[in-house]
Predict the structure.
Amino acid sequence: MSEAAERLAEVQGLIADAAQRAQREVGEICLIAVSKTHDAPAIRPLIAAGQRHFGENRVQEAAAKWPELRAETPDIVLHLIGQLQSNKAEEAVALFDAIHSVDRSSLVQALAKVCAKAGRRPQLFVQVNIGDEEQKGGCAVADLPALLAEAKAAGLEIAGLMAIPPADVEPAPFFALLDELAERHGLPLRSMGMSGDYETAVMLGATHVRVGTALFGARG
Ligand SMILES: *Cc1c(COP(=O)(O)O)cnc(C)c1O
């Protein structure tokens, strides 16, 4: 087994254990391998080991490396997990199958326009600033109902919520809150959990975990 295949098997095993403890089906949980900063030669071994969902945080970086990798493996599913500027919405919609960072009115309007124009419907998550932190991306918890209503009015289907809990504090209450907000709004998907806390996130309802370091090693 390659080192990448070993890391992948370990993460998949821990996800399966956490799902079992929570009496969830492991098939409900999508592992997104966060490949930001890693180049194609670092990514190929994970693809060879069977990984198909990948996450990037910058449109430009993804546009530079994924067309070639996708030509080699057409069933790759690409997730944008970083902040999106409205003027890059068109490029993002062309490149990504899912966007986890819908967080404001102007972006909802830009996405509605470019999705209609391109005839594409990427899976969309509203990012919630779940700890109500200053300086953090995401829609304020209090503004979520209005943003969801606006997306609906604009013809955008929102599939779920995404959050990055505050650093250096116990993440579980924030995962539980995101799960509750998604439930309240009838949204089926929850994108939460990274290398340090994805097992907790799975136990608390994550449908998508975004794991970089545990699969690729530390970023340079
Ligand atoms: C980088 C990143 C991750 C992955 O973080 P790791 O700790 O390396 O697993 C997950 N989500 C987002 C939004 C990120 O930017």
Observations:
- The mean pLDDT is 97.
- Residues 3-21 form the longest helix (19 residues).
- Strands lie at 30-34, 53-56, 77-80, 98-102, 123-129, 139-140, 160-162, 189-191, 208-211.
- The pocket of pyridoxal-5'-phosphate is lined by residues 34, 36, 57, 81-82, 164, 194-195, 210-214 (CB under 6 Å).
